[in-house]
Write a structure and sequence with these properties.
Elements (H helix, E strand, L loop, with lengths): L11 H6 L5 H37 L1 H4 L20 H17 L1 H12 L5 H39 L10 H18 L2 H10 L5 H6 L1 H15 L5 H29 L57
């Protein structure tokens, strides 16, 4: 028995790429992508709730490693001001963990909706930047964890021996997570530098000429976001950002050399040779000859206005 094979039509991705989808179909595609992404985040949130307690203990480790943070039984002490604070904190941690777990799925759904509107080289750039963004953010998070440990040690020693300090759990976790987020986002700055070079806005030489301003901005930013007034955490963050900036400039030099930027105007000329002017003047031709003996035409007579009709009621 022979079975007829139904011909497979173009997929939604292919139809979106060639522009054959209508506006309503684009809205439906967005709805379906958002539903799948939300479903993945909901499943990740379930795993995040299960992992919330270990993650909270991991974030509490910088404080718990300090002397004086434990009681006589060796337990790390925190304060809870409200009866539901710890429960809400676990929900918040579970949501963040769920977003991280489900990141491959919801990022793919976002990419599948945006990618059909991009060119092929723009997709390659997006793949490269995405592959670099994740490890850079992770490196910033690790540095933030290190700075938090050193900063807490400095701050706890400043309080003195006559003052007993016990941290409130929700404020402490918010402090650590905000610091991790700030450091992770700061480590994405080299990607912005590379994007400026790859799209042709700034050359590598121009980026290198901005190194003084860049280092000043890095140290000013580090002085604001680091939690302690000591120079160690600020210097560590600023030094890492400066190293990443010069690494990005090095990649920009390689990209400029590969594309031959900066040599298009002076290609084929010696160092002491004047470049030619590219100016093509339009040829000037003689105009039509004017005969001076030709009679000048008389001006056209001016038309007289039509007479005004008077009505009987205009008479006074």
């Amino acid at each position: 028995m022979a079975f007829a094979m139904r011909k497979r039509g173009p997929s939604t991705f292919e139809r979106a790429a060639d522009g054959s989808m209508t506006l309503i179909e684009h809205v439906r595609e967005l709805r379906n992508r958002l539903f799948r992404a939300s479903l993945a985040i909901l499943v990740g949130f379930g795993f995040g709730i299960w992992l919330a307690e270990p993650v909270r203990h991991l974030l509490s480790q910088p404080y718990c490693d300090l002397p004086g943070s434990k009681d006589a039984s060796g337990k790390c002490l925190f304060v809870q001001l409200g009866p539901a604070d710890l429960f809400l904190l676990n929900l918040k941690i579970g949501l963040w963990v769920g977003l991280i777990i489900a990141a491959p799925i919801w990022l793919y759904q976002l990419w599948a909706f945006i990618a059909p509107g991009l060119h092929r080289h723009e997709r390659r750039y997006a793949y490269a930047f995405t592959a670099l963004a994740a490890p850079l953010f992770a490196a910033g998070a690790v540095l933030a964890f290190f700075v938090t440990a050193k900063g807490l040690e400095f701050l706890m020693n400043v309080s003195g021996d006559d003052i007993s300090t016990t941290l409130e759990v929700t404020r402490y976790i918010s402090f650590v997570t905000n610091l991790i987020l700030l450091f992770g986002v700061a480590f994405e700055f080299p990607l912005i530098v590379l994007m400026l070079n790859f799209v042709g806005i700034a050359s590598a030489k121009r980026l290198l000429s901005w190194w003084r301003v860049a280092i000043f901005v890095f140290f000013a930013f580090s002085a604001v976001v680091t939690p302690t007034p000591d120079p160690f955490g600020m210097t560590a963050l600023a030094a890492c950002l400066s190293a990443l900036y010069f690494a990005a400039v090095g990649v920009a030099f390689i990209n400029d050399r590969r594309r031959g930027r900066g040599k298009e105007v002076y290609a084929g000329l010696d160092d002491d040779e004047v470049s030619p002017l590219e100016f093509d003047a339009d040829p000037v031709v003689a105009g039509q000859r004017v005969d001076a003996t030709a009679p000048v035409g008389a001006p056209e007579p001016i038309a007289k206005p039509a007479p005004i009709e008077r009505r009987y009621d205009d008479m006074t």
